Amino acid sequence: MSIRKMIALHPGSKAHNNQALGDAVHHLMYASKMCLSCADACMAETMDMTQCIRLCLDCSDICEATARLGLRRTGDDQPILLELLELCARMCEQCAAECESHDHEHCKLCAQICRECADDCRRAAASIAG
């Protein structure tokens, strides 16, 4: 089962190269859930993790919204999708930097998926921009 394949099979996506977008949506879906899980784990830590929680929750929401728009191949909303991909890459980098400042294993995993997601969002944005 693959979201990449699902995007490629969409009748409205035949005119587009969807490999980079499929990779981004794949990572966006995982990053959204990993950030949500990291935020929850941060709440259980004894130290003040307020900023990390906030960034993880914001990142999760932005990744989720970007993935949802990336899945929609009917019609044309490329300028908005491009802006969301670029915003998401910045948000993922910010979340990763915050998570990397903590020594918790859940934060390290979150930072890793965020960095991967940011890279894929940039590649997808470049493929859309032409």
UniProtKB/TrEMBL annotation:
* One Pfam family from the record: Csp
Gene3D superfamilies linked: 1.20.1270.360
Q: What name does the UniProt record give this protein? A: Four-helix bundle copper-binding protein
Species this protein is from: Sphingomonas lutea
